[in-house]
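Running this now, will post back.
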Amino acid sequence: MKACIINAATSSKRIAVINDKALEKIYLEEQSENQIIGDIYWGKVVKVLPHMQAAFIDIGLSMNGFIHRNELVSYQQSENPHKDQQPMSAFIREGEKVLVQVVKEGIGTKGPKLTGIIEFSSDELVYLPHGNYVAVSKKIAEPKRQQWKQLGERLKQGMEGFLFRTAIAEKSEAAVQHKIKELQKKYERLERQTQGMKAPALVSKGQDFLETRVQAALQQGIDGIVVDDFDLYQHLHTTYSNLSIEYYKGNENIFSFYDLERQIEKLLKRIVWLKSGGYIVIDETEAMTVVDVNTGKFSGKDNIRKTMLQTNMEAAYELSKQMQLRHLGGMILIDFINMPHKEDRTEVERYMKKLCEQDEVRTNIVGFTELGILQLTRKKVRNSIGSTLTMPCEVCEGTGKMIDSKTAAFQIERVIWEHRGAEEEAIWIETRSDVINEMKAQGFLNALEKMVKKTIYLTPSDDYTNAFVLRQLGSNEQIQKRVSASI
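Update: finished.
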């Protein structure tokens, strides 16, 4: 059974799609950021970039939005046959006020991506005031598909556009015409609202997180929905009367009940084990995601070539799932187990392409490099699960590493050696317990005390920000008092 599990009873909203209890999709509401996809703004152009055929627009957020020339209404409606050769100033200028909609959240240092081709969505259709085309879902069979397209062409006024979704098949023509009139009036009100409005300003909020993600889950072909919020349950029960909607009443967290908490935690781990005993290591960096494939415990029953190919094929399948679950985007490099035979690399690449064709996010397989690394790109549509749920470590500054105990011990030795000529008879060092053990091993501390002719006091510290801290130089009596007081 394929189901949508909704955790909406608490502050942070979460939606998961499961198939026979296995997690297939996960959508998390990012509490640290406002959900702005679909929001419509009255923005002000602050900078035009002719060489990039784009512009930055102030929409009132911490970072300016970015819009490409092709997303401008003025460009789309231009009848000039040579408009591609025209300068950006022909379509937009600094200081101009424009109506824009957010199509992609800002990620990292990049601001949100904008479009001037505004759209209004409903379950059955998308209305585009400046779309200038009519399209019908390919899931609707002919001749019904052609009939809906003809209706759209008849109803279209001027530069309007319609995108008829699969759900329209269950609607009557009268109901569809009524919905189109509603959306047309909504846009007219929005235009009137911007008259005399000071930019930048939010004009209209898009669909909220739960609404958009439930619609995304429905497109996965789910059999039912389980939700832990009664008000949302009633709303869903009314809206999707043809679907099984269940209200979860248990005391246990709904995600814990369906074993989703454990599965989400696994998405934060670097290592993913394969059924054969092999494993893949996933490392996210700011520039790209790097994946390493290893045979691990898998030795295979046949020849080495077959073992390597089997592990790589299994790794490709698992990675296609992990990219979707972890929301990985941008450049992805996969270091498969070495395949000397070209036909094996071709088979893995072909299989990876087939898997990525089933991904709702556009993915492009570039191919193998001379070093045998498979290159691919996956469109960034949201922050990864890792960046959403975690933050860089303040101790290691995100490297995942810290000074080891032996290195820290040598650093302490060098610092103490610098004070060998000081008059004080004792030195107090605060460091990690593992470093203290390293200092005391094999008589290292005793030998150091004899060389510098000072008593060295080592006390444990819970502060892992620094490998060690020199607390004090002084007499034995002074430091003994300080050490006793700190314990």
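The first strand starts at residue 2 and ends at 7. More later if anyone needs it.
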